[in-house]
Design brief:
It is a single chain. Strands 3-4-5-6 form a 4-stranded parallel β-sheet. It has a 3-stranded antiparallel β-sheet with strand order 7-8-9, with no helix packed on it. It is an alpha/beta fold. The longest helix has 17 residues. The chain has 9 helices and 9 strands. It is globular, with a radius of gyration of 19 Å.
Length: about 300
């Protein structure tokens, strides 16, 4: 029901001058404030940090409605000290930050290792399992142990490294820090079922209860990302994805089937209390389908 931008880095001709990057961030935020594909809430307008930005730039962005930074490290700002100052300015004005973690991604990016991640102190350790190339195991565990920021595990990363990060968070008694993402679009493509695949992968290969993996994608992500969805509470958005065991899937129940690595079937999507879709054409067909009872 919700998508979060890590920066509009794939836009052809992306402006890298400060006036241009601010204009693009504000325009992107406005586009998706006014346009909701299939009812989905898209949190967009995430400027990529470039050298030369000053505190007033972040205040201007915040005053204009921008609430996110693009992945720190994808622009010209790669030094931990410079990134840390800009992250502090962003945080001061209510803008959340995510840092690239691991080897190079888009052209012009470079290695962001544990030392830069820790010094920058962004709110979210973006794709800790690589986007695509993961850091060495000892750096991943060090990041989990050395700060209390969000630990994002993504579809378009290294699955083994993702399992390592998850297990380390559990060993630290901090599973509430784990959030899920796709890191798409990327060279691996765009995955409409990326989050469901992550839930099934972590539950089956990581041997954790599927309901806990679902919490990574919903409540944990909502709290870390400061969203008004992802949990069932008075005052939050009425956003629901109604799922059931896929037809003919093994396991005997939906949760048991997910724990064996199978995807569930989506029967209905409700966003802001409005039915936005019925049976999914992307997931396997659900065994049972929800239906609307007229008042």
């Amino acid at each position: 029901t919700t998508m979060i931008s890590a920066g509009e880095v794939h836009a052809p001709g992306r402006p890298k001058d400060i006036v241009g990057l601010k204009a693009m961030a504000i325009a992107s935020q406005r586009w998706y404030e006014n346009f909701r594909p299939s009812g989905v809430k898209v949190h967009s307008g995430a400027p990529v940090l470039e050298e030369g930005m000053v505190e007033s730039d972040f205040k201007e962005l915040a005053d204009s409605g921008v609430k996110l930074l693009g992945e720190v490290g994808l622009g010209s700002v790669k030094a931990g000290e410079t990134a840390a100052q800009m992250v502090k300015w962003a945080r001061k004005y209510g803008i959340q930050s995510t840092i690239h973690t691991g080897g190079p991604s888009i052209p012009g990016s470079g290695l962001i290792d544990k030392d830069v991640v820790l010094e920058a102190d962004a709110d979210i350790i973006g794709h800790i399992n690589g986007g695509h190339t993961a850091l060495p195991d000892d750096q991943i565990t060090c990041l989990c142990e050395s700060c209390l920021r969000g630990i994002e595990i993504v579809h378009n990363g290294n699955e083994r490294a993702g399992l390592l990060a998850m297990r380390t968070a559990f060993e630290l008694g901090q599973p509430e820090r784990i959030i899920l993402g796709t890191d798409a679009p990327a060279g691996s493509g765009v995955q409409p079922l990326g989050i469901l695949r992550m839930i099934a992968m972590l539950s089956s290969l990581g041997d954790i209860p599927p309901e806990i993996a679902i919490c990574f994608a919903t409540g944990n992500t909502a709290r870390m990302r400061e969203l008004d969805t992802g949990m069932i509470e008075v005052g939050l958005s009425a956003d629901f994805i109604l799922i059931d065991m896929a037809q003919h899937a093994p396991g005997g129940s939906m949760l048991a089937s997910i724990h064996q690595g199978n995807l569930p079937g989506v029967g209905m999507t409700v966003i802001d209390g409005v039915v936005r879709s019925h049976r999914s054409r992307n997931t396997p067909p659900a065994t049972r389908l929800p239906f609307i009872v007229e008042a």
